[in-house]
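Justification of resources, computational component.

The compute hours requested in this renewal are based largely on the per-chain cost of generating structure records like the one below. Each record pairs the submitted sequence with a full structure-token output. That output is archived, and it is also reused by downstream analysis tasks.
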Amino acid sequence: MAAYGGPVSESRSPRRRRVARAQFGNPADQLGVDPGVDGVDGVDGVEPAPGGEPRAGAGAGAGGVRRSSGDRVRTVVRTIGEVCITLGVLLLLMVVYQLFWTNVVSAQAISAGRDDLIAGWKDVAPDPAASPTPLAEPAVGTPFGLLYIPKMKDKVWGLPIIQGTTKDQLAKGAGHYVGTAMPGAVGNFAIAAHRSTHDEPFANIDVLEAGDKVYVRTAQWWYVYTLVKDDPNLAPTDVWVVDPVPGHPGAAPTQKLLTMTTCTPRFGSTGRWAWWGTLTGYSRAVPDGLDVSS
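The structure output for this chain reads:
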């Protein structure tokens, strides 16, 4: 027989287990655990302290881990941080869309609209009258003219003029205020365009000066307006700027005026900027000194 020289084996025979339970009792019975479950004396994962009671902290929470108040605070802070990062990314995407992608889409729409107008005018017979007959107002959404401003040639050179001033119309060019005069007519020919986003046609309205020329082309005539004055400090509620006689509600118009409006400041819409001009000429051919070949 071998001598007991090494550690005693941890395994015990079923007979010895039964003898031990009969003498000392079964901790599993005291804890209400099925003694058929393997573990330490039939209790899985719970180390009994002297006297058969489980040690402090054992069995608290899933896996025996108790969440502290610090853990909950860290979870809340982490969640708030993730939400802020997500909102920041969405905001950045919105800025990119407004300041970049709308310019790309509108530039394509403006170019296509210009080409369609010029192609359609090739089949229009010249006006036999000695002076132009003002156009009737077209349906909302209908393009009827092209705008040329030499001082703003990079953006306003063959810019389509479309009936209406909703977002859809202003995304395709300059919009004509419904109910105001048509080009060359007595009254106030009033138009609007974006200063930022949607190809920003009026981005550089601040470079204009009194005396600058504005050209409007229709199917049969060219109209020349000369700028007279501006007001960069208007409010969105100052709708009188597009009245037949601006600043004089109810007055009967006698002049052939032009009004151009846009938002201000450059990348905001809290204010409005308006320029006014008067008709100083018209012609069937391209006006002298104006090169529209480029």
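The radius of gyration is 41 Å. Residues 101-283 form a domain with the Sortase; Chain: A; fold (CATH 2.40.260.10).
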